[in-house]
# Entry
Amino acid sequence: MKRIYWVLLIATATLITVAGCKKLLDRQPLSGSLDDLKSGKLESQVYVMYSHLPWDWGFNLSWIDFHSIRDDDAEKGSNQTDGAEVNTEFDKFVGYTKDDWALNSYWNDHYAVITAANNVLATAKELNATDPATLRNVGEACFFRAYCYFELVKDFGEVPLINFPVLKPTDAIQPKALVPAIYQQIDSDLNVAVQYLPVNSSAYGSGFDGRLTQGAALTLWAQTALFRSDWAKVASLCQQIIGLGQYSLAPNFTDLWKAGPNGAGHNGPESIWETQTVVGQNAATNSAVDHGTMWQTCQGIRQGGASNDWNLGWGWNTPTQQLVDDWDNSDPRKNQTILFSGQSDGGAAEGGYGRTLPPYSASEAGGIARKYWNKKVYSDPAMHAFTGQLTGNADWLGHRILRYADVILMLAEAANETGDGATAEANLELVRARARGGNIAVLPHITFVSQDQMRLAIKNERRWEFAMEGYRFYDLVRWTPATTDTIDAPHILGPLGYQPKNALYPLPQQAIDLSGGVLKQNPNY
# Structure
């Protein structure tokens, strides 16, 4: 089976858009004779889970709001009236309506995937099949359910725990489960996923790049342990990932953000899990070869109006002045992460294409112009020409949801917290060595001196390595309260309006109303 066929199956598996808790979870398991579902023939149900990632707002635009816009390094971008509520709720931590598109789509889309996972697991249980293909499907479903619940518990805390197929609307009306119960479900699901998922996606057959693997389950599990400060568990899981021998840091930091027919970053050595795209020649006029994602489109440069060749997207998720000011110019990643209006894109050495961006003008029509842009979604002009998508669209770069650099820095942090300074130093150096590109003068080796010194170094490294990727807000929250430094949510985000209650987001009023009041709003909202 060719990869284009795999993407086509994902594309055709997208069934409906749902709104509201009752409708959302009112899903019967797919019907049909069990005799028709032998030996791994749960594939069609499994594709439904993957199909949500490329285009559902909850995994794209709304995901960016929750993961990136709330930190100090990113702001919404676009103009003030485009998603105006995001400016107040996510950028400034005020004015929560509790009933808007970003919140509702994020909640609904994650529960839609949970529902699809529950249906796969229910069908697999009824089949009682133990062939490798079916068990892989079970592993995929358990991973997706764990992934979505980890997203929800980070953002909302207590949420309804729906780990069964919903056969009638009232089944979906459940009170919030305690946070430990949510994590218990996550741990259980990831334990199954690690057992059943293959080490390499080639086990699914030829052309199935992007299918889930054991490494993805271990990485997600490590992230959940990191959020709970279970340092021994983090270290153990990261060592298991390294031991698989499947991943390595990409030779060049800029490789990660290159996509296209021969893009170095697409399913590269550092990619543990990413959304898949196949966008062929003349995709603008041939939908049969356009199986992309909105990930790149919603963040692309939109400078100089909507009718020129710098209209490359919607202009969301742009770097803040604070990020630019805080970042030392000697770190090569700064110019490899940020595009500066009116300046050269730096050419190939800095992940650019030899172009000069239009100058910033505060009076630009529509107010979309920005001084800075996210270079990690900078689209290749050759790909625009190849696809025929010349303006306003760039849908070939998938979201690298899990990447190996995070494993290395999680291990460094866990080692430091458990008193293994040598391991912390060695793993921090791996990331810095790649970033410096051989020039020791710009990013010198950091030698372990003390736990406090190394902790601060790792915190800073995570900021620079993952800038604009959606890690920062959750790092700041989990680092609260601080130990001997002030890199935590109250100190960093407090001046932006952050209060302790903002570690969690309010539940959608829509879901509360549909539950008949069974769901209770988060405190202080």
